[in-house]
C-alpha cells in the first residue's frame, strides 16, 4: 500500500478492528470513530506511517502501550467520547503530535504523559472530572489552545505562566474560586472564557487583560 493514504472506517459497526487493518502499514490517516470499540489491539503499533488517528465516539476504557510506538503521529489524535480513566505512559513519546482531544471521558486525574507531549499546539480535555491540573502542564510550551470546559477545577497552577504561546484558555463550567495572577502574564493570550463560573470573584487584573486586547467572556 502506498504511503499517505486514508482508511476511513467511520461508523461501520465494527465492534472489533479487523486484523487486516494492522497489515496496511502505509496508512497515514486511520478513522475508527463511532464503531462500538471496547478494546484496541497492540498491533496498532505496526502502523509506523500513521499521522492522524481517530478513535472518538467508542467505548474504550483502556489503550495499549503500543500507541506510543507511533512516533510519526503528528496531526491529530482523537480519543474523545470514550470511557478512559487513564492513558498509557508511552504517549509521552509522541513528541510530534500537535492536536490531542481527550474530552468527554472519565479522567479524574490529568494524565501525566500528556505533559511530555511537547509538540502539542491544541489540547482538549473538556467534559471530564479533573479537579487539579498538575504543575507539569507548564512543559507544553508550544500550546496555543487549552480547553478545560466542564471539569471540577477550583484553580490552576502557577506554572500556567510558562505557556508563552497560549492564545485561548477555555475554563467554562468549572467551580473555579481563584485564578492565579500568572494568567495575566501570558503574552499572547487572545481569549479567556470564564462563563458559567458563579463562584469566581473576578481578579483585579482582568481589566488590564481586556485593555490590551484579550477577549474575556464572563
Folded structure, characterized:
There is one protein chain. Helices cover 5% and strands 15% of the residues. By secondary structure, it is mainly beta. The chain has two domains: 1-129, Leucine-rich repeat, LRR (right-handed beta-alpha superhelix) (Alpha-Beta Horseshoe), CATH 3.80.10.10; 133-218, Alpha-Beta Horseshoe (Leucine-rich repeat, LRR (right-handed beta-alpha superhelix)). β1, α1 (19-22) and β2 form a beta-alpha-beta unit.
At a glance:
The protein has 218 residues and is mainly beta. 5% of the residues lie in helices and 15% in strands.
Produce the secondary structure layout:
Blueprint: E1 5-8, H1 19-22, E2 27-31, E3 52-54, E4 76-78, E5 99-101, E6 122-124, E7 145-147, E8 168-170, E9 191-193, H2 206-211, E10 215-217
Parallel strand pairs: 1-2, 2-3, 3-4, 4-5, 5-6, 6-7, 7-8, 8-9, 9-10
Helix count, DSSP H or I runs of 4 or more residues: 2
Helix fraction by DSSP (H/I, runs of at least 4): under 10%
**Global morphology:** elongated
How much strand content do the residues show?
Answer: 15-25%
Roughly how many Å apart are the termini?
A: 51 Å
Widest sheet: strand order? 1-2-3-4-5-6-7-8-9-10
Throw out a few tags for this protein:
elongated; Leucine-rich repeat, LRR (right-handed beta-alpha superhelix); 218 residues; mainly beta; 10-stranded parallel β-sheet
